[in-house]
Amino acid sequence: MRFTKMHGLGNDYVYVNCFEEQVADPPSLAKVISDRHTGVGSDGLILIRPTQRADVRMEMYNADGSRAQMCGNGIRCVAKYAYDHGLIKRFADAVPGANQDEQRSILQRAAEAGASPGSRHLAVTVETDAGVKTLGLAVVDEKVQMACVDMGVPSLRPSDLPCTLEGDRIVDHPVEIAGRSYAMTCVSVGNPHAVIFTDDLASIDLTVEGPPIENAGIFPQRINAHFVRLDGRGEVTMVTWERGSGVTLACGTGATAVCVAGAVSGRTDRRILAHLPGGDLGLNWAEDDHVYMTGPATEVFTGQWTS
Length: 307
Prior knowledge:
Diaminopimelate Epimerase, Chain A, domain 1, 5 helices, globular, alpha+beta, 18 strands
């Protein structure tokens, strides 16, 4: 089976082109291929499949074999792979069936995201377990350089996470987990996130604090945990414990949740720059209530899996 290793800001996955390859047992493959000592090494496995609902489909598995709904860094890499490797034959400046205002908006954001002035901008769609997402691609020398993802409309409803806490939304909600007290804001962007703002990010040991939050009883389907330092109204620094994968260098859906959490709690503006261990992401919770996330995608190498 041929595979490709890709990453978005160090959030790395093994990608399999299922237009050409067959994967009989994705959860089992995800666990062995993700191992950083005996496998390829990654935060998980992403299968790129044909679909009738969009240009391509993204099917994602965490490093522990569990299914994940969506990954902001992963979907940028899926779009890059699909374009760079010629999986889609009808790339154009418009997406059939997509809202034209949305297309113009997302392509403009891709153009504003730091791509080279001479880049060409195209729109694509990717089906995920969290719905169909629209992306704007900045293409330079026939390679995708940057991608802007319409992450959709976030939800603060506990039932959408799901979470057993009561109320219409969870914003700076006091909780105690494993003997530690947190003020927690929870956001669903197709998958669940707990955001905790702190003045002392350096004191956070994710390997100690991450697992109890991920597996807390108030989150029946577990949760992603993010600790965030406020650097200004338009700038934050964050670290992530990812559900099913552990410490990761970047989390696009998590950065999206941080953007929403900062705005609803009054800490930040709706447009921010998020500094992650692997690099920076631009986030904009726009007037249409969609969050737009912009960042790079990188192909590392291809190989043959023989196990």
